[in-house]
Write a structure and sequence with these properties.
heterotrimer; A mainly alpha (316); B mainly alpha (290); C alpha/beta (262); B: 290 residues; mainly alpha; 11 helices; 2 strands; C: alpha/beta; Rossmann fold; six-stranded mixed beta sheet; 24% strand; globular
């Protein structure tokens, strides 16, 4: 049994995903595909972060779109109200999300499953309420326009450019997540998921670890939200709403809780599907709910781990 | 003074609904340790189903009855088809299932009904009653009376009937209850059915005042849960007290501080309770046995 | 100086006084066993000592320091480790990873270093892996290292928990019924594992039902009945104690105990 192989498995998925991101555009017939691809990669980034929280550490967050909203509005409000460059606002948004995650997480992460779930639900709703109400800053329910990102004097726009930005960021975020899993913190998180009591008895500060992963997942979502806003040129409070949070959860569940590769799959399915089925829009909520229910009842591992299991069984 | 009375009354009215939602949570939680996120949808379904059946020409009382029956059936189906198959799963998974169910029901309501707001005619007319300078809607009194009746009936049932004792036994120790012959699966069925019925009735009663639409369930679930937490999760008395308190605090802060942040009150209360007294007002701190 | 001292501990659960004024003292390097009929409070006592429960009365001292009411993670930092009667295995992780988690208190961890996987993290991972393998070797589970923990047999899981607790290099190890549910072969393996620990100077507090194991291995035996100390002494003394025989060992049990000591 080759134990060194265990550490190689960290780099192999990253290379594979990076290759996928690089090669896929060869098959894109039009700019529209770049757009869909960019959206998938942006959401996948948020989903990776949420997966760290839900799949690895075993904590539920029903308000994660709130951090998406913070990141999105940071790059909308920052340039407009403060004249700050967009990239700086992106960082500011990420830091703000981290701080908010710290402030909110500290009291609520101490508690079990349903308390945490409801508290995060409330948090997400609260962010959406604030974004809707503070119209002077946020433009109210109709949202506001987002000035394009300017890097080194160039206006960053175009689906293809954003595809590469999102792709690079996703691969980076993917690598960081895999790194985390192969570290004392990562092992501690996985331990917490399986037995908090045993984790504590081994000296793990459970509350602190949960808080750390909550903050990390918030930052991932914030960056994704900022990208979304800059890419679309427009934000509305819906981005941070309940349905947005459920969509993220569905992506995690679909792809596989605890499977970082699954994050990409989950995001891909739930971004592409509405594009492919225009009737999807009316049925979206019902379908999301159904997906979460069915997967949680019958296919708890999600698509990727299940396929991996089938594949492994095959090879024997 | 009249203003204060006004807020108190509207707070109590809404609070009565939160209390009923919280009671539904508590019933299911006590019987099965599950927090049912779809609780709010039961309220929504009660109101919406009544509206649509009456719009289709069915006389109002019959429409209401049908709505309660339909919602109860949905509650049962939720337990049998969504929760029961995953009985042994971790709490996280069960929470996600009820969340999925909640969103599914919302989505279904959106398709089957529509996305608009709807109302129902109040039971005794819309002319406000003057009481101490405040204007009280007769429907408010109906809501308060209805909630009281439900709470009393439930209490009598739990305390005085054999089935009620079986529910308490199941809540205290499921294995022991099964060993003495209680069919715990039916008990949980029952708790889901009753919670759904209570929710539906609450929905029908409150719609003349607050209107209803396909998505009112989410906020109601949040507030009902906040109420259950405030009162102490698992305590029926706590659920009722918690509901009324949240309704009042909400109404008072909406009136005196800011009405646009009314919905944030429940969330803030959750945070405060979690930090200050996680077991709520009437709950008992549970010691986890290893 | 005693490594562990518990002074008149009491705790009540819902009206039942689970532990009522129990006191014990464990010297360094000893094997100290706690026995008693079912429901006598053995696991509760262990939970009190390991910080899972906070005593309502009484005090606990570890190497002279008062540690009453400290949380389990704080006790872990002071060199206390334990296993669980109802296994608390990290079933999703591999056997090796389970034991690696045991090394946690000896690992340096920083969030940025972990995210970026500095060379220091890689080096530490390798060191942790090596230490974990060594712990597995001591309980005879090296071949199973890469398997998911959930796939192991019951007896092996019990040994896995011991390995995991060992990996944290405790000075005091609490074992909660390590032989429970094990067949004679597995019990023998656990017996050997515990003996090798003791040889290295780790102090062991053992809660057990298996009289042969207890009498064979213990330096001192503490008998609990209904939350109170019934007797304490060497295995010989306890076995001969009339009260203990009556309350707990019974005729058959005392015969078995006598057999073990021959």
């Amino acid at each position: 049994m080759n134990l060194r192989a265990l550490s190689v498995t960290r780099l192999l998925p990253v290379v594979a995903v990076a290759a996928l991101v690089l090669i896929l555009p060869l098959f894109f017939p039009s700019a529209y595909y770049y757009r869909v691809g960019a959206l998938v990669l942006i959401f996948a980034l948020a989903v990776v972060g949420l997966n760290l929280l839900m799949g690895f550490a075993g904590q539920v967050s029903l308000g994660h779109a709130g951090f998406l909203g913070i990141g999105a509005y940071a790059v909308a409000i920052g340039p407009v109200q403060f004249g700050a460059p967009s990239w700086l606002c992106l960082f500011a948004g990420a830091i703000l999300s981290g701080i908010v995650a710290f402030a909110v997480g500290r009291p609520i992460l101490k508690l079990k499953g349903h308390y945490l779930a409801v508290a995060t639900l409330g948090f997400g709703l609260l962010v959406a309420i604030v974004l809707t109400n503070e119209a002077n800053w946020t433009g109210g329910p109709d949202g506001m326009n987002v000035p394009a990102l300017k890097l080194f004097g160039w206006r960053v726009h175009g689906s293809d450019v954003w595809y590469w930005i999102a792709g690079a960021t996703f691969v980076g975020g993917f690598l960081l997540a895999l790194n985390l899993m192969d570290s004392p913190t990562g092992r501690a998180l996985q331990a917490i998921h399986d037995s908090e009591i045993a984790a504590r008895v081994l000296g793990i500060d459970v509350a602190r670890k949960k808080l750390v992963v909550f903050i990390i997942s918030a930052v991932y979502a914030s960056v994704a939200g900022s990208y979304l806003a800059l890419f679309n040129g427009l934000v509305t409070p819906d981005l941070a709403g309940f349905l947005g949070s459920i969509e993220l959860v569905a992506m995690v569940v679909l792809g596989g809780m605890g499977s970082i590769v699954g994050s990409l799959v989950g995001a891909a399915v739930l971004v592409v599907l509405p594009q492919a089925l225009t009737v999807f829009h009316d049925y979206e909520q019902a379908l999301l709910g159904l997906i979460v229910m069915v997967f949680m009842i019958f296919l708890r591992q999600g698509i990727v781990p299940s396929l991996a299991g089938v594949f492994a069984g095959w090879r024997k | 003074m009249a203003e204060l009375l006004q807020f108190v009354f509207s707070g109590l009215t809404v609070g009565a609904i939160y209390a009923l939602v919280a009671l539904g949570f508590t019933l299911i939680y006590n019987a099965s340790d599950i927090i049912n996120f779809a609780q709010g949808e039961f309220v929504m379904l009660g109101g919406m189903t009544t509206v649509f059946f009456s719009l289709a020409g069915v006389p109002l009382p019959l429409a209401a009855l049908i709505a309660v029956i339909v919602t109860t059936a949905i509650g049962l189906a939720l337990h049998r088809f969504a929760i029961e198959p995953a009985r042994r799963a971790s709490p996280v998974v069960l929470i996600m299932i009820t969340i999925g169910a909640s969103v599914f029901l919302r989505g279904l309501a959106q398709i089957v009904f529509d996305k608009r707001f709807h109302s129902l005619p109040p039971l005794f007319g819309g002319e406000p009653i003057r009481l101490g300078g405040a204007a009280i809607l007769p429907q408010s009194l109906v809501v308060l009376a209805g909630a009281t009746v439900i709470v009393v009936v439930l209490w009598l049932f739990i305390e005085r009937t054999l089935l009620g004792k079986a529910v308490i036994a199941t809540a205290a120790n499921r294995l022991a209850a099964r060993l003495i012959g209680v069919n715990t699966r039916r008990i949980v069925d029952f708790s889901f059915a009753v919670s759904a019925a209570i929710g539906a009735i609450a929905g029908i009663l409150i719609t003349p005042i607050t209107l209803t639409s396909y998505d009112v369930g989410t906020l109601l679930a949040l507030k009902g849960f906040a109420a259950a937490m405030l009162g102490g999760i698992g305590s029926p008395l706590g659920a009722v007290v918690g509901g009324l308190m949240i309704g009042m605090i909400e109404a008072l802060s909406a009136g005196y501080i800011s009405s646009s942040y009314k919905d944030a009150v429940a969330f803030l209360i959750i945070l405060i309770v979690l930090v200050a007294t996680p077991q709520g007002l009437f709950g008992r701190a549970k010691v986890e046995r290893v | 100086m005693m490594l562990l001292e518990a002074d008149r501990l009491s705790i009540t659960f819902g009206g039942v006084r689970a532990i009522d004024g129990a006191s014990l003292a464990v010297a360094s390097g000893q094997v100290f066993s706690i026995i008693g009929p079912n429901g006598s409070g053995k696991t509760t006592l262990l939970n009190l000592v390991s910080g899972l429960y906070t005593p309502q009365d009484g005090a606990i001292h570890l190497a002279g320091e008062t540690v009453t009411g400290l949380a389990p993670e704080q006790l872990a930092r002071r060199g206390l480790s334990r296993t669980f009667q109802n296994l608390q295995i990290f079933s999703r992780m591999s056997v090796l990873q389970n034991v690696m988690v045991g090394r946690h208190r000896h690992e340096r961890t920083g969030i940025f270093a972990d995210l970026l996987h500095w060379p220091s993290v890689a080096r530490q991972n390798a060191a942790t892996r090596a230490a974990a393998l060594a712990a597995l070797a001591r309980v005879g589970l090296v071949e199973a290292a890469a398997r998911p923990a959930g796939s192991l047999a019951y007896g092996a899981l019990k040994r896995l928990e011991i390995a995991r607790a060992l990996a944290s290099e405790p000075r005091l190890l609490l074992l909660d019924e390590p032989a429970a549910g094990c067949n004679p072969v597995e019990t023998q393996e656990i017996d050997q594992a515990i003996r090798s620990l003791v040889k290295e100077g780790i102090t062991v507090v053992l809660v057990e039902h298996d009289m042969r194991l207890v009498m064979n291995i213990s330096d001192r035996v503490h008998v609990l009945a209904r939350g109170r100390t019934l007797a304490e002494g060497t295995p010989h003394e306890v076995r001969a104690n009339a009260e203990v025989i009556e309350a707990y060992l019974g005729v058959h049990g005392s015969r078995e105990a006598a057999h073990a000591l021959d």
